[in-house]
């Protein structure tokens, strides 16, 4: 679910402008999962563009407080959301922690890095949602540390059904600045892609785990 349509359209346009989202229906990317995909999203690029990172920071800060209430702590998911999470926490005047994919193998063996007290209300900032599995590992780690998860805010989601199911099972509210549907609508309107390429992109989104260019 997006925060609102205006934010979704503006965010999609900015991501396309800086090539944080690359669309290549004719020469698909291969994800770490092995899936073939005509789209690749690298939201880390946002941090290199001050005006755009400030826009994302401000939209997150505004919508997080409106939708979830002001939390006690902002948590970022390592590594992609650490940078933007810090900016959001700073803007909101809140403490910040980040969550590793797994506990460290040495030292204190922390998975949640930073100061977090049991019972504190936490909103998690994430850069990208695909299936949601890695994001929900962060939720599990924070809950194990005693946090009360108010929700997750992400920059972009592919909108897969499996992600919606995973977040529902975990009882986590997910809201995003933009999503795949708004991205495609904008990409067609601004002529980033042709109508034929749009058809390919929509076909992929209906069966991402089995899609290939030969289909």
From TrEMBL:
- Please give the cofactor(s) recorded in the UniProt entry for this protein: Mg(2+)
> What residues does the Phosphoribosyltransferase domain cover?
56-156
Which residues make up the binding site for 5-phospho-alpha-D-ribose 1-diphosphate?
Answer: 100, 104, 106, 126-134
Which keywords, in A-to-Z order, does the entry hold? Answer: Glycosyltransferase, Magnesium, Pyrimidine biosynthesis, Transferase
Gene Ontology terms describing biological process:
'de novo' UMP biosynthetic process; pyrimidine nucleobase biosynthetic process
Pathway involvement of the protein, from the record: Pyrimidine metabolism; UMP biosynthesis via de novo pathway; UMP from orotate: step 1/2
Recall the GO molecular function terms of this protein's record: magnesium ion binding; orotate phosphoribosyltransferase activity
Enzyme Commission number: 2.4.2.10
Q: Can you tell me which residues the record assigns to a coiled coil?
A: none
Annotated catalysed reactions: orotidine 5'-phosphate + diphosphate = orotate + 5-phospho-alpha-D-ribose 1-diphosphate
Can you tell me which residues bind orotate?
Answer: 130
Q: Name one Pfam family in it.
A: Pribosyltran
Please give the subunit comment from the record.
Homodimer.
Q: What does this protein do?
A: Catalyzes the transfer of a ribosyl phosphate group from 5-phosphoribose 1-diphosphate to orotate, leading to the formation of orotidine monophosphate (OMP).
As for family, the record states: Belongs to the purine/pyrimidine phosphoribosyltransferase family. PyrE subfamily.
Supply the name of the protein: Orotate phosphoribosyltransferase
* Source organism of the structure: Flavobacterium fluvii
Read off the lineage from the record.
Bacteria, Pseudomonadati, Bacteroidota, Flavobacteriia, Flavobacteriales
Gene for this chain: pyrE
């Amino acid at each position: 679910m997006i925060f609102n349509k205006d934010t979704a359209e503006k965010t999609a346009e900015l991501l396309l402008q800086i090539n944080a989202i690359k669309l290549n229906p004719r020469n698909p990317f291969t994800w770490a999962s092995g899936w073939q995909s005509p789209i690749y999203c690298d939201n880390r690029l946002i941090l290199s563009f001050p005006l755009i990172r400030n826009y994302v920071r401000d939209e997150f800060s505004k919508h997080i407080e409106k939708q979830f209430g002001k939390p006690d702590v902002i948590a970022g998911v390592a590594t992609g959301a650490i940078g933007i999470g810090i900016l959001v926490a700073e803007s909101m005047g809140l403490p910040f922690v980040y969550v590793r994919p797994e506990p460290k193998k040495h030292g204190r063996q922390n998975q949640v890095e930073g100061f977090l007290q049991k019972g504190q209300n936490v909103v998690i900032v994430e850069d990208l949602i695909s299936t949601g599995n890695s994001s929900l590992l962060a939720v599990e780690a924070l809950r194990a540390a005693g946090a009360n998860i108010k929700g997750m805010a992400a920059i972009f989601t592919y909108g897969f059904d499996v992600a919606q199911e995973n977040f529902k099972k975990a009882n986590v509210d997910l809201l995003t600045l933009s999503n795949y549907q708004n991205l495609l609508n904008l990409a067609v309107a601004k002529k980033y892609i042709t109508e034929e390429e749009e058809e390919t992109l929509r076909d992929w989104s209906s069966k991402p785990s089995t899609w290939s260019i030969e289909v």
